[in-house]
Each structure stands twice: as C-alpha cells, then as structure tokens.
Amino acid sequence: MAGVANSGRPLPRKPTSPPLVDWRKNCPGVDGKLKHLLGTGLLMDVTFRVGNEKGEVETIRAHKLMLAMFSSVFEAMFMGRFVENRDSTDDIIAIPDIQPSAFKTLLKFIYVGEMSRLQLSTNEILETLYAAKKYDITELEIECTQMLKSNISEENAVSIFQAAQMFDEKELREEAHAFLKRNFDIVMQRDDFLNISKESLCTFLQDDDTFASELSIFHGVMRWAETECSRMNMTSSSDNQRLVLEDILELVRLPVITSEDIALEVIPSRILTPEECTLLLQYKVVAPQNRALLPALPFSDRRRSFSAYKAVFYDEMKGKYVDLSTGWYNRFSVDQPVSIVSFGFYGPYTVDNASYTVSIKLMKDESESCPVLGEAIYQNVPVKVKEIFHVKFHHPVPIHPGILYRAWFSLKGPLTCHGAAMSNTMEVIVPVNTRYQNVKFTYSVIGAHQLPEIMFQV
To answer: Can you tell me the distance from the alpha carbon of 193 to that of 236, in angstroms, rounded to the nearest whole number?
Structure first.
C-alpha cells in the first residue's frame, strides 16, 4: 500500500458533477438488484409484444441473459437457432399465445423467484404453466403444479383436471381426478363443471366410484347440455339437448332413480322419447324377478359404489337466522343401518357469494357423554345466496337403528336462511330401492332450524 501511495500517481477522483445516486445501495442482495432491474427496465435489450387482439396486448422488455439462463428455448431464440414471430420493422418478438399477466409472472420467477408469494387465480396459474411448458422452464412448471395441487376445489377441479391432461401432468391429473370422483355431486353445481369436455364427462359417468346420486347426475348432465347448445349457437330445445348429449345420456343410470323422481323430474324434461319413458316406467313397476321379461333398457341399472340418498327435513326456506358460529345440534335416528355421508346447510340470506368456516360432528346422543363418531372442518367454503350446500365427512360414518344421534354443526360467516316445518319432530321416509325399500329418519329440531338435508348410503 505504501508503494502505491508514494508512486507519484494521482488517486482517482470520484465524480462531483452531476451527483450520481447509486441504486445498488438501496437494493441489498442479488435478489434486490435483480428486482430493481426488472422493475426499472435498466439495460434491457429485448422487447416482446405479448397477447393478441382477442384479449390484452402489452409490450414487455427483459434481459436476454436472464432469459437464456433459465430457458434453452430463449437461448436458441437469441442465438438465431430458433425464430419466434418477429416484427421485421422494429425487431419486436411477438408472443400471441400467452397472456401478458402470465408472461410477467414468468419474468418475476426468473428474476427473483417470486411465485408462491403471488396471489394468483387458478386461471392465472394455468396460463403461467402453459408459458413454462412452452419455454421449458422446469422449475416454474414444478412450482405451478404444486400450487394447483394445493388449491384444487369444487370451483376449479374440472379446469385443473383437463389442463393436467393437456399438459401431460400425471400426478396433477390423478389428484384432480380423485377429487372429482369424491365430490362430483357438488362439482356439478358449480360453473366450472359446465366447461367439462364430452370425453371427460363420459369418463366420470362410466365410473362406478363417481360419488353422486343419479338424480343429481341427471340434472348436471342437463345443465351441461343446455350450455353446450349455447356454445354451438343452437337453441336449447329438448331435441337439440338430446342431439348434443348423443351417447352421454345412456351413461346416466336412470333406472336407479326413484319412480317419483322419474315422474316429476326426468320425464317432464322431455329429453326421453315416449318409448324410453314407457320402458323406464315398466322397469320401475315390475317386480325384480320379472324384469327379464321386459324389452332391454337403453340405460344401465347398475348402482354406483358410492350412490347416496338424501333425506330432506324442511318444507320450505325462510328468512335470515341467528349466528351459528357457537355450534348447534339436532337429533335423529334411523330404522335401518346406513352410513352418513354429509350434512346439508342453508346458505346466506342476502349475501350473493359468501364464505363459511364449517365444522360438523356426528355423535351418539348419550346423557353422560356423547362419543364423536365422525367429524370434519372446512375453511372458506364458497356458497351462493339461498343455496343449500353440503359438507362431507372424510369417510361415510356408519350408524344403526335403535340409537339416537346428534348432528352437531357450526357455521362461521354471514347469517343464513332457515327452514320451516309443521313440527319440531318429523318422520321422513326415503325410498332407496334396495333390500330395504325405505329408510325412515326420525328428526328432532333442538334449537336451530338449520341442517335441512342429510346425505347417506345404504
């Protein structure tokens, strides 16, 4: 050091005019500096035009070096081995098949690894996964699929399942498929279900393990047919609905539905031909040992493994009720061995789209103690105004005749509707068409006129 000081060479002077503000001092660490470069556009050397005229179009800039470090596709593009759509007049690279928001998420991941901290919708994650696949950014693909796995719900399961098929993401596809099978009865009530492909719909209708009552499957298929007519610019007449259903309707196991529901729900839809109505009603009224004498049915009468039945306890829905967050319970008993699948609740009275934290327990009603046979807790359950929604136990809970049970529940969220009945104690007969022709529920309202429905298996 002394040699340098005595060498006679002048020391370099710091510039004094104009004063420079060193941005690096306010951006600690590599992540902070890269985030600054991304946010300010400093030294960026490549420009993209992202999106197309059908949606948003945005000009986005980046650094070639950063993109090439993460993506061999970008490297080939910049090295001239791969030509993307390029505007020859201004040297802008056009990317019409990716949404601007997804491309920005991709850049944030490349520069600073921000992905899990971003509040992204399911559709935004799927768009980002498409971008990651296109540009072969494996780390981002993994991040997207993990986020999708942890966010599968009744609201998005169909979209995630079909995207996983398209992207050949086996684990994600299997998780979404299993979720859909377990929750098909609820999924069919959601808007996302209306986007299911014909092939995917047939897959679930053919599966014996798809969980739903056959009547709810019929209504779900009819909702899908109405939407499909709209997509094809056809009027939603019964003839057109039958046309779009083609070979789908035969996968609905109509003979499993009760005679009353066939008469009141299926036949009035006008989706069946007169001959099919006759064959179906013949099947229902003839004794099982004589059905072989009837013409062949065009519908399967094979019962699904997880077919569920519904006991309904209130005559009608009334106005708003009290806060149910502290917990309430009603009592009930049955006259046949069954397994309880879920409790159904009235949704909000005035809020269009509400969210509840729901706790449910099934207990023996004993004086000294009430042993818990099954319980479940769900956070952020989405519910529409005046809708009945179901909350499932993790596994069906077996119960037996001659025992009194408590159906305990807690709903934390907006005030709900409540039910109206002639009496606080009622008997409800549910036809099940098994060796027990009916199951009788004896139901007593203790405090809250909630819990209008219970789903069960035999």
So the answer is: 18
Sign of CA dihedral 191, 195, 198, 204: negative
Q: What whole-number distance in Å separates Cα of residue 370 and Cα of residue 25? A: 64
Phi-psi region at 14: left, alpha or beta (left = phi > 0; alpha = psi -120 to 50): beta
Quick one: pLDDT at residue 52? 86
Q: Find out whether the peptide bond into 268 is cis, omega within 30 degrees of 0.
A: no
Cα dihedral across residues 148, 153, 155, 159: positive or negative: positive
Domain 309-457, classified CATH 2.60.120.820, yes or no: yes
Residue indicated by tokens 């009916």? 438
Instruction: Quick: pLDDT tens for 397-443.
Output: 999 999 999 999 999 988 888 887 778 888 998 877 544 568 999 99
Buried b (16+ CB within 10 A) or exposed e, 230-259: eeeeeeeeeebbbebbeebbebbbbbbbbe
- 3-state secondary structure (DSSP) of residue 372: strand
Closest CA to 213 of 237, 240, 194, 189: 189
Q: For domain 24-151, give the fold.
A: Potassium Channel Kv1.1; Chain A (3.30.710)
Q: Which residues on adjacent β-strands are paired with residue 89?
A: none
Return phi, psi of residue 376, to 5°: -160, 150
Domain locations in the chain as residue ranges:
24-151, 197-293, 309-457
At 336, give phi and psi (nearest 5°): -140, 155
Long-range contacts at 149-154 (CB < 8 A, ≥ 24 apart) = 149/175, 151/122, 151/125, 152/176, 152/179, 153/382, 154/183, 154/186, 154/187, 154/189, 154/190, 154/192, 154/382
330 backbone dihedrals φ, ψ, rounded to 5°: -120, 160
Q: Which H helix or E strand runs over 69? A: helix 64-70
**Per-residue pLDDT at 438:** 87
Judge whether 366 and 340 are in contact, CB under 8 Å. no
Give the contacts of 406 (CB within 8 A, at least 6 positions apart): 329, 330, 331, 361, 362, 363, 364, 365, 370
**Full-model pTM:** 0.65
Cα–Cα distance between 221 and 242 in angstroms, integer? 11
